Amino acid sequence: MKKKHITVCIVSPFPPPFGGMAVQAEKLASHLECEGFPVIRVRTNTGFPESLGFVSKVPGLRTAFNLVLFLKNLYKGLQQSDIVYFFTAFYNFFFWVTYPAVILMKLCGKKLILSARGGAAGAFFRQYRGILKPVISKADTVTAPSGFLAEVFWQAFEIKARIVPTIADLHQFTFRTRDSFQPLLLSTRNLEEIYDVACIIRAFRIVREQYPHARLGIAGDGSLRNRLGKLVAHLKLEESVVFYESVCHQKMQHLYQEYDILLNASRVDNLPGTILEAYACGLPVVSTNAGGIPHIVADEKTGLLAPVGDYRALAEKVIRIVENPQLGKSLARAGAEYCKIYSWDYVKKIIIPLLYSVSAGGQKGKSC
């Protein structure tokens, strides 16, 4: 007998903007709907009504209003759902969004799968372990997208996090075989300190000194946009660097086809989806070895790794690929093969049984 589909409440930022967690949440929601599951989306990135636009200009008031609006929407979603799948980040997000939300969910007796994301988990857990454990332990199951983050949960709380791989919609991307690799570099991270796009720009200057026709595309937006623009001008790279700002997920596959190498310089990271997308499109990956990245980029096999902050090493590895196309082709083929485990056909064999198992486990949740 076919199982009756349960209603899943997905709590997360949702696009726009097109950040990694938001894109993952929308992918999961869309795929579950295609599998026949009713899905309720509850945005943590709530917007302000136009009539209350002035509130957004007052930092403390803005945070309080966002929390009240979010919890109101969450309460409504909980009344209509059987289980909650909650995407959480750390630090301010955890304290201002996750912490009160988990309390509300448990008051309503809802089963909770807590999906943790972010490379800064280790430092966060060490700093706040005492006040985090009572809330994290309320989750019926904790999931992590990588072995790196699962290890962090075990070390901090002795919680066995279930690994649920990041979803890469490989059918949206076309693998392009490149017989040679031009110094056409692409960065697809938000313009924030932890992604160190300034390091990428400095690496690019070294590459451009050797290859005057080199080009760097930067797809992403953030608080450092003006500062990075000034750095490009200071290094006299304006004619060779393109800022695309925020690019919607549906258009990213076209952008990948315009470039030959993906460059990533994260200082803190877990499992960047952009690396999987680059694999699927045939781009060799050159990245720093921050956080969980070595779990998905095997150095010299599926990509090339450099120490965090070392722009000279990043540049040297880019030049290696340009000068040795056989290396580039080998990395691209291996990356494309590896990323198959992140397809929905693979991930659904983990996540759908998990939803049914958690939903059915323990006492029946009481109604809100």
Could you walk me through the main structural features you see in this protein, from its secondary elements to its overall organization?
- By secondary structure, this protein is α/β, with parallel strands linked by helices.
- It folds into two domains: 8-167 and 343-360, Glycogen Phosphorylase B (Rossmann fold, 3-Layer(aba) Sandwich); 170-341, Rossmann fold (3-Layer(aba) Sandwich), CATH 3.40.50.2000.
- The chain is 45% helix and 14% strand.
- The protein is built from twelve helices and twelve strands.
- The strands form two sheets. Strands 2-1-3-4-5-6 form a six-stranded parallel beta sheet, with helices on both faces. A six-stranded parallel beta sheet has the order 9-8-7-10-11-12, with helices on both faces.
- β4, α4 (121-136) and β5 (141-144) form a beta-alpha-beta unit.
- α2 packs parallel to α3 (92-107) and α9 (273-281) crosses α11.
- The radius of gyration is 21 Å and the shape is globular.
- Residues 362-367 have low confidence and may be disordered.
Task: Characterize this entry briefly.
The chain is 45% helix and 14% strand. By secondary structure, it is α/β, with parallel strands linked by helices. The chain is globular and about 60 Å long.
What topology emerges from the helices and strands here?
Layout: E1 8-12, H1 20-34, E2 39-43, H2 59-79, E3 83-88, H3 92-107, E4 111-116, H4 121-136, E5 141-144, H5 147-157, E6 162-163, E7 184-187, H6 197-210, E8 215-219, H7 225-234, E9 241-245, H8 249-256, E10 261-264, H9 273-281, E11 285-288, E12 304-306, H10 311-323, H11 325-338, H12 344-360
Parallel strand pairs: 1-2, 1-3, 3-4, 4-5, 5-6, 7-8, 7-10, 8-9, 10-11, 11-12
